[in-house]
Amino acid sequence: MDKIKEIDKTKRARGHLLKGQIGEIYSKYIIKEKGYRVLNLSKRYLKNLYWFLDGLNKKERIIELINKNKGIPDFICRKGKEVIFIEVKTNNSYLSKNQVTFFQELKKEFPVFIWNISFDFNLKDINISECNEEYIKISKKRLENYEKWAKDKKT
């Protein structure tokens, strides 16, 4: 019985992670639809911050704030010279202490928006099945066709 509870707990955790990722993807789409360029502020994209802020008067101040604080928002958005920050929370997630502190400091100089996106899906509806031999044959054939196409394209 404990094993079943543990599996259930893991599924719920994965479900929350998926909801967060889906919420961010959807938010990015909405932000772009409003005419903003958008940069995800996760660590792997921070190297792009310099070019993203190029030409702004407050470029150095924004970089300073982001480098010295923890709890940075999900997105920095830009439309011309206008810069806004957006944090996306899904369902019942909350801001961390670091985020509250940083957002209060950030709000003194820039607009900060916190979006709460609510939706639901059931992980029990997601099915994972073993690949059968036919699926593997089809996959190999597609790969061979792609490799042939790529080789022909080079010549």
What's the structural blueprint in terms of helices and strands?
Blueprint lengths: L1 H32 L3 E4 L8 H4 L6 H10 L6 E5 L2 E9 L6 H11 L4 E6 L15 H22 L1
Parallel strand pairs: 3-4
Antiparallel strand pairs: 1-2, 2-3
Describe the structure using short key phrases.
155 residues; alpha+beta; Trna Endonuclease, Chain: A, domain 1; four-stranded mixed beta sheet; 51% helix; extended
Report the CATH topology name.
Trna Endonuclease, Chain: A, domain 1
Task: List segments where confidence is low: pLDDT < 50 over at least 5 consecutive residues.
Answer: none
Outline the biggest β-sheet: 4 strands, mixed
Report strand %. Answer: 15-25%
Quaternary status: single chain
Helix content: 40-55%
How are helices and strands ordered from N to C? HEHHEEHEH
Distance between the termini: 61 Å
Give the overall pLDDT as a whole number: 78
- CATH class wording: Alpha Beta
Number of domains: 1
Structural class: alpha+beta
The beta-strand count equals 4
List the strand order in the largest sheet. 1-2-3-4
Which geometry do the CA atoms define? extended
* Radius of gyration, whole Å: 22 Å
Count of DSSP H/I helices: 5
The CATH architecture classification is: 3-Layer(aba) Sandwich
